[in-house]
Amino acid sequence: MVKLTINGCDNIRYNIQTFGCKVNQYESATIAKAMDEHGYERTDDLFSADIIIINSCSVTENSDKKAKQLIERIKRRDPMKIVALTGCFPQAFPAVASSLSADIVTGTEHKEKLAEMIDAFTRNNAKQVAVPPRPVKKQYEKTGNADMGKTRAFIKIEDGCDRFCSYCIIPTARGSVRSRPLDDIKEETEFQVSCGHKEMVLVGINLSCYGSDIGLRLADAVETVCSVNGVERVRLSSLEPELLTDSDIARMAAQKKLCPHFHLSLQSGSAATLSRMNRRYTPDEYYDIVNKLRAAFPDCAITTDVMVGFVGETDEEFRESCEFVKKVGFAGMHVFTYSVREGTAAAKMNGRIPSDVAAERYRIMSGIAKQLKESYFASCVGKTEKVLIQRRESEEYANGLTPQYVPVRIYGSNAQKQDIITVQITGASGSDFCVGEEIKSL
After folding, report:
1. pLDDT (0 to 100) of residue 135
2. Which residues pair with 155 in a beta bridge?
3. Which of 91, 281, 294, 380 has its CA 20 to 30 A from that of 396?
4. Taking Cα atoms as reference points, which of 205, 123, 127 lies closest to residue 172?
């Protein structure tokens, strides 16, 4: 291993392992920029790196387990490697995270100081731990612009959550809602355009809460990003449905650059289960919002998250959830099984679902999700869409995304990454992707 020195040097390499949501991916890019500025060199090879940064997620127990296992695997293979653990896992469970063999442990508030903590470790060879209590920042902290190197640019505009769903540890890990000022959002959007990005994806811990702390609405951020020259598409990440007002929907519908794809977090289609989850809507209210979006965006795709096996979920409640997702007709569903998060209200509830029952419900709901996705992809055949090319995997075809977030494989096109081309959808390969042909202008 390379001998580390103060302030780093050109041949000290680091690798970032990112778990979880698009927010973590965005923050990893910011970490990487700080590491580069401190003289460290990035590598994609995990085990050739001298420093390994684990940017963790703690949405599920499995996420924590993956971080623990990775730390153990790295240290077992090479005890001299420097391992830094950051993110929601140490913030939510500081005592557990600090007891691991990572050399540097910090939560969600000090990610921007991670490079400095690594410098301190290399100088003193002493474990660095900085995990304050629940984040208490009242304002969104300005960070430097960083290109994630992806086809689409992810722009984080919000942090924190005050909803405290009974199963979720994230409000503890992320603190209260903090919204990014519009001028700052516009500045980063302009930066991302200068990097060649045409599609901007707005992300946040609870994106729908954007502006609640500074007297704004999510629609204000959408309008700001859409106003920037060079932006061709704007997309929203996961949304809490009940926070979308009629005014929000109308304002966003007026923005022609906004992609007609809405990921509305559902969690359950049973009113009783939603109540125990401390979700703030009923299935009927959720369905009403879906219909309003479909009226305002006639060709929109609605996708969602669905949890099975929540505490106390009866056979009847599960059946109601299955029937509801069929009624909505989602274009895509992320199905997952409830996992206990210590420190949440649900962890204290009685009525845990046996693992074999939860596994069977996961199998059934996943089957429904596959059927719905196949049906939606089939409904796209014959349509003409603008497709953003993400990558070329061979000379024969390119892969891209429609505004509705449908993956399309385009044959017989010379289009390259970042191009937006007109494509006619000619077929669908089950629930995997659609197939299309480029329509070239005369």
Report:
1. 62
2. 202
3. 380
4. 205
